[in-house]
Amino acid sequence: MSDEQQAEAEQVDEEVESGIQDGDFVRLAYTVRTIEDGDVVDTTDKEVAEEAEIDVEGYEFEPRVVIVGAGHVFPEVDEALIGAEAGDEGTVEIPAVDAFGEYDEDEVRTVSANKIDEDDRYPGAQVTIDGDQGRLETIIGGRARVNFNHPLAGEDLEYEYEVLELVDDREEQASGLLGMYLQQAPEVWIQTDEVEEEQVVESDDDEDEDAEPETETVTVEKDTLYIEATPQMTMNQQWMFSKQQIAQDIMQRLDIDRVIVQETIEGGMGGMGGLGGMMGGAGGADIEEAIEDVDIDADELAAELDADEE
Hints:
PPIase_FKBP_dom; Thrombin, subunit H; 4-stranded antiparallel β-sheet; Peptidyl-prolyl cis-trans isomerase; isomerase; FKBP26_IF; 9 helices; 3 domains; 5-stranded antiparallel β-sheet; Chitinase A, domain 3; peptidyl-prolyl cis-trans isomerase activity
């Protein structure tokens, strides 16, 4: 390598090191389209989604926080982000093999119609056969033809992006990760709590190995991420089935000791219209009146409890 080439290589390395690196949190605005037809696959822009006639109800269209190099975006996008700066824009082409795979004719299979629920026996229905998800293409008699390829299999993609900012604040990072996982970002905050916990007391004396270890209660500080759960979040399937994994990922990446999820239920009975009837009409009665209506003899109940203890 000549001196000139070496100097150029060192300059490139210096530029890369000064920009975005693996592990950085960045906020991205992006739109993904198929190259062949220009169909919108995903976007953070609500207007783009509406123009593409994508259902926008219940979906938050806003820039996403991703971690570079963590598999949150396609590998080609990760590579383009390395060395970039806030404000940079770009377009990356994603070949089908790196996107949703090549189209495989063998993944179009004929199965027994008995494996499909009667309500799903129509072309285009999403079905699950022996654990595999697919789309029903045709059904004739007792046989059904199901395509188990991903709907975008064989499609090359165009990923248009803009780096809005690097995200350094841990609360914003946590909110961004939850938004990526759940398609919505609940309210979060981080605080240091003092927590009592049991710890084993180390002893220098030779003791019986079978003896119970001696413990003591100590107060320790723990960085805690609090999440204010919304009704939409508690019903989110991704959260319902993967909340342990999501919490572990956030704790590891943000150096958090624990995660506490809080759910607030507002006062008032306005949203529980039918509950009074379920409770025999006592829902609107005074508590003391309700207790008076309960036919329980206190002395008799105490005698029964004493008899049980004996």
